[in-house]
């Protein structure tokens, strides 16, 4: 990178020209390694320092403050920045493709080696790195855990559960309207709540579905990874969606209409809704064993 900059320094480059060279040349120089491994923060900071020096002074090495904070410079142009990529974020985004490949068990020599040496028969999203693992592998597992936490929290933040209402300053009884034991939040409602958990067990038993997953994110991931027919995956996914809807509707009825809780009706409504929707959109091409299984429900 410094060699490239030295060859440019003698030229009369405009400010816009420097930005173009940073995005099209300097950032892409480290792109190869960023797609291969999670790079140490010290290395990424050094690379950003080179880009920052070239932007403000047209030199590879410059010690001093820039005109604008680098954090603001790296914002999108629509947000008032210059659209320069943040190397650390780009590095993490590039590594995510390996996390996704491991999750989906895509076929490649490297993935077979990873499953044989590291993961073995463990579930990837609950896998934790040993202290004896390499630096790069531990960093990848840490990034995987970070992504999982973001995904899990994002799924529930959309729901205006009681914990969300309290954050908005609304005074409500924080106890779960279904079990009346613990405070209500998205994670509790789907499916840590004793009532919701029992409903889930009833639906799983009805579908003859032996899933060890007990939370909503785990169930979704289980369906995606399960080695079952496409039709069964669709039915299981529809069952979870129908159950979540029924639980949320029942919860709202208990709160706003002061209805009494009837878990049996909740389960029966879920079953009826699921069978009706699947019957309407039943695929034309379906295995006989799957068809018999569904009609026997």
From TrEMBL:
Pfam families: zf-RVT (PF13966). InterPro entries: RVT-Znf. PANTHER family: REVERSE TRANSCRIPTASE ZINC-BINDING DOMAIN-CONTAINING PROTEIN-RELATED-RELATED, RNA-DIRECTED DNA POLYMERASE. The chain crosses the membrane at residues 12-33. This is Reverse transcriptase zinc-binding domain-containing protein. The lineage of its organism: Eukaryota, Viridiplantae, Streptophyta, Embryophyta, Tracheophyta. Residues 132-198 form the Reverse transcriptase zinc-binding domain. Signal peptide: none annotated. It comes from Cannabis sativa (Hemp). It comes from the Eukaryota. The gene is LOC115710800. Keywords: Membrane, Transmembrane, Transmembrane helix. Coiled coil: none annotated.
């Amino acid at each position: 990178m410094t060699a490239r900059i030295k060859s440019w320094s003698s030229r009369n480059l405009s400010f816009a020209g420097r930005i173009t060279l940073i995005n099209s040349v300097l950032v892409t120089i480290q792109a190869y390694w960023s797609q291969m491994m999670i790079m140490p923060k010290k290395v990424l900071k050094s690379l950003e320092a080179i880009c920052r020096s070239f932007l403000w002074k047209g030199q590879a090495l410059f010690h001093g403050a820039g005109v604008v904070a680098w954090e603001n410079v790296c914002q999108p142009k629509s947000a008032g920045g210059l659209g320069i990529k943040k190397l650390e974020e780009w590095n993490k985004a590039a590594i995510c493709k390996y996390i996704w490949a491991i999750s989906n068990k895509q076929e490649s020599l490297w993935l077979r080696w990873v499953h044989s040496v590291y993961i073995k028969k463990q579930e990837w999203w609950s896998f934790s790195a040993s202290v004896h693992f390499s630096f790069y592998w531990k960093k990848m597992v840490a990034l995987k855990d970070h992504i999982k936490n973001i995904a899990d929290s994002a799924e529930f933040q959309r729901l205006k559960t009681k914990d969300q209402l309290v954050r908005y300053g609304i005074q409500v009884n924080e106890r779960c309207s279904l079990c009346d034991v613990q405070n209500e939040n998205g994670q509790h409602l789907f499916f840590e709540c004793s009532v919701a958990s029992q409903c889930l067990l009833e639906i799983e038993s009805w579908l003859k579905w032996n899933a060890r997953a007990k939370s909503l994110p785990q169930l979704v991931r289980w369906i995606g990874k399960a080695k079952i027919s496409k039709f069964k995956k669709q039915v299981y996914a529809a069952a979870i969606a129908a159950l979540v809807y029924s639980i949320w509707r029942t919860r709202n009825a208990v709160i706003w209409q002061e209805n009494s809780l009837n878990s049996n009706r909740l389960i029966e409504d879920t079953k009826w809704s699921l069978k009706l929707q699947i019957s309407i959109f039943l695929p034309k091409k379906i295995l006989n064993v799957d068809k018999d299984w569904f009609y026997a429900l």
